[in-house]
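At this stage, I needed to go through a protein sequence along with its fold in token form, as given directly below:
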Amino acid sequence: MPIDVRRAHDRAVTTTSWLKSRHSFSFGDHYDPDNTHHGVLLVNNDDIVAPASGFDTHPHRDMEIVTWVLEGSLAHRDSAGNSGVIYPVLAQRMSAGSGIMHSEKNDSATEPVHFVQMWVVPDETGITPSYEQHEVGDLRGLVPIASGRPGQDAAIAIHNRSAALYAARLERGAAVELPAAPYVHLFVPCGQVNVEGLGDLAEGDAVRFTDSDGRRVTSAAPSEILVWEMHRTLGG
């Protein structure tokens, strides 16, 4: 089983006066032809936005964009008339489809917001743009928070039948089993975990599995993990 461990310090970083964004894949000015995606996941950005700052209105097209806040709150507004504030344990999805404009701003004037934003390709291009957000309940296990998989319930739906995103908050010593799938992406946004047969992962580390055999992940400290299960890759 091919396993590709990506350490936090190897990520490209975009830094401005109000933003620190760490990129797991090629993004913006940081292009690496050997690091463009895993499965159907193209973006896994780990962002910290300063108080009273954020991304001004900008366009997106033909992308499923899932946002998961770790600390703080993030205000969303888009050209389709959708708006909302995203906070920890609330999952949000924006389907850019045929084209949409949106802004994302820190909703606090005093505290930073820390979030992970993930992009996957949709099954079809040119769909009607849409927006969804929903609070997730108990995260003590591996909980589906976004899915397009047939028959799978999740907090929010994405327009990709081959992909699902799970989250878990793990106390020290708690364990979950990764999905067995052709492509799995494990990301540790906070804490420290141990992956069966692989070793320790620290905050910001990730693993890309091809033909995942469903390994066990055990928390070495209070941790949060994000896991993508994918059953095809781009062009596959």
